[in-house]
């Protein structure tokens, strides 16, 4: 059931959504990072959701700034812990 909701949400996800989320959470993105994150989300959401999230996320290292990567890990862990 959650997979269907995620797929429907992703159909509407935009670069603006990604930038707005980053800004709202105190981590504005560097130019071009929104596209990198968008592609990552679209191509890896199932692995993050059902598989080895840390391994999937580690593929972003070197593709985005260290600050964005570290803030992303921090936010992922915060939201993951809220779900538990």
Estimate what percentage of residues fall within beta strands: under 5%
**N-to-C order of helices and strands:** HHHHH
- Any low-confidence stretches, pLDDT <50, length ≥5? none
Helix content: over 70%
Shape: globular
Number of strands: 0
Q: Mean of residue pLDDT?
A: 94
Radius of gyration: 12 Å
- Helix- and strand-based class? mainly alpha
Termini separation comes to: 18 Å
Largest sheet: none
In DSSP terms (H or I, runs of 4 or more residues), the helix count works out at 5
Description:
With 84 residues, the protein is mainly α. It is 75% helix and 0% strand. It is built from five helices and no strands. Helix 2 (15-24) crosses helix 3. It is globular.
Topology of this structure?
Blueprint: H1 2-12, H2 15-24, H3 33-50, H4 53-58, H5 66-83
